[in-house]
Amino acid sequence: MTTIFEALRESHEIQRDLAEKLLQTSGDTAERRELFKQLKNELFAHETAEDRYFYIPLMMTDSGLNITRHALAEHHEMDEMIEELTATEFSNPGWIAIAKRLSEKVHHHLKEEEHGFFQQAGKILGEEQKTALAVQYKNEYQRYKDMKKDMLVQS
Q: Per the database record, which ranges form the Hemerythrin-like domain (predicted)?
């Protein structure tokens, strides 16, 4: 049985990989556009599912409240950087500077989750809850990944 922590880590690896690759791109290229689209989708699907099936259950406890507040604030910061990148021309020399800030924030956030929050959450959530949340998270995550793809195809 997969736990919520293992399920979240799978997406974390994808995020790290995409963020690294994105920083290797330059100018308005098909590669930059594609990698940015993939990272944007990954972050969106992951954050949405993670908020619902990891952070909201933690928020129900006093000890989980501070972790949750901090993590959700970081999700919000990443969303703002994604919006900034979306509004900036791919060819703009400043684009990669924003992408670098986003990549640093993603790396910082994931490291904090994996080396701090997961340990704390492990003490808060029961064993059955850890596997039940993994199933719910994965379903939601997949739903958003698929949905975003459909939306992108239509536009």
A: 3-120
Q: Structural domain tally of the chain?
A: 1
- Name the residue range of residue 96's domain: 2-145
In a domain, 153, yes or no: no
Residue 32: which CATH number?
Answer: 1.20.120.520
For the chain (155 residues), the mean pLDDT of every run of 10, in chain order, is: 97 98 96 97 96 95 92 96 97 96 97 96 96 98 82 49
For the chain, give the secondary structure using H, E and C: CCCHHHHHHHHHHHHHHHHHHHHCCCCCCHHHHHHHHHHHHHHHHHHHHHHHHHHHHHHCCHHHHHHHHHHHHHHHHHHHHHHHHHHCCCCCCCHHHHHHHHHHHHHHHHHHHHHHHHHHHHHHCCHHHHHHHHHHHHHHHHHHHHHHHHHHHHC
pTM: 0.92
In this structure, are residues 106 and 82 in contact, taking their beta carbons and an 8 Å threshold?
no
CA distance 82 to 39: 9
